[in-house]
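Q: what sequence does this backbone want?
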């Protein structure tokens, strides 16, 4: 069993999925209807409301620091169905608040001698192609870099891997291949402390021998980032495979082929 804190919780689909192997420590939801649903179904789990207040509460130990931080920050600012004001929209800017929450959790857990937090985040694919490079800002914040990371092309690829102060992997998945009767694509990002591998959560390790394993979706066109010896990043676009590149990372490839029975 592990513990988790949930931000922008909604009606807590993740708690339905994880109830057999995880314990929620707290939720964070401000909308009246989903808050009422949470209170009904999870009466013993506190709803902390506004996520912008969470970093200070965690640092002052008013709120416990969980093993996992999970949530999907508001998507309206990134969706192609909206105005796409991205980080200029206060809802979109909550994506960067996520970084401060994770930093606060990691600080407390480090002080307590516990493993650092794992982040699970989701949003709409539109976040990969905003004019202000919102996804690059998020990656940089999670990797503890001072400047936004830049995609190799005009937009971020649908899957990628980053090895820096934290290890991050992201992938766009379609709900129709996971037991849902509709096409619903979402970007999922998982991040952890540098010493913990999270790639296997979203991608399947097919080869450690150095041989490239073809992927079932050549349009996925993943990107891999690794820190060079000079502190910069080297990026590679690799059709059909998530390639571990650079230094101690060389020698392995990651792929994941989503199938209808994966759920």
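A:
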């Amino acid at each position: 069993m592990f513990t988790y804190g949930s931000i922008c919780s909604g009606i807590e689909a993740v708690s339905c999925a994880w109830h057999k192997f995880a314990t929620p420590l707290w939720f964070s939801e401000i909308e009246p209807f989903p808050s009422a649903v949470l209170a009904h179904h999870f009466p013993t789990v506190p709803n902390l409301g506004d996520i912008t207040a969470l970093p200070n509460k965690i640092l002052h130990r008013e709120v416990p620091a969980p093993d996992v931080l999970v949530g999907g920050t508001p998507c309206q600012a990134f969706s192609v169905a909206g105005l796409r004001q991205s980080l200029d929209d206060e809802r979109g800017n909550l994506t960067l608040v996520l970084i401060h929450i994770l930093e606060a959790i990691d600080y407390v857990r480090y002080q307590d001698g516990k493993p650092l937090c794992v982040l699970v985040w989701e949003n709409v694919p539109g976040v990969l192609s905003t004019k202000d490079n919102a996804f690059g800002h998020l990656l940089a914040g999670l990797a503890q870099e001072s400047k936004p990371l830049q995609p190799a092309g005009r937009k971020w690829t649908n899957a990628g891997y980053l090895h820096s102060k934290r290890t991050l992997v992201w992938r766009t998945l379609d709900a129709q291949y996971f037991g849902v009767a509709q096409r619903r694509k979402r970007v999922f990002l998982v991040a952890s402390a540098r010493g913990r591998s999270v790639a296997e959560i979203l991608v399947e390790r097919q080869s450690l021998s150095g041989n490239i394993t073809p992927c079932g979706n050549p349009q996925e066109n993943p990107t891999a980032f690794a820190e060079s010896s000079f502190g910069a990043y080297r990026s590679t676009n690799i059709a059909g495979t998530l390639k571990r590149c650079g230094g101690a990372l060389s020698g392995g490839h990651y792929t994941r082929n989503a199938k209808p029975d994966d759920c």
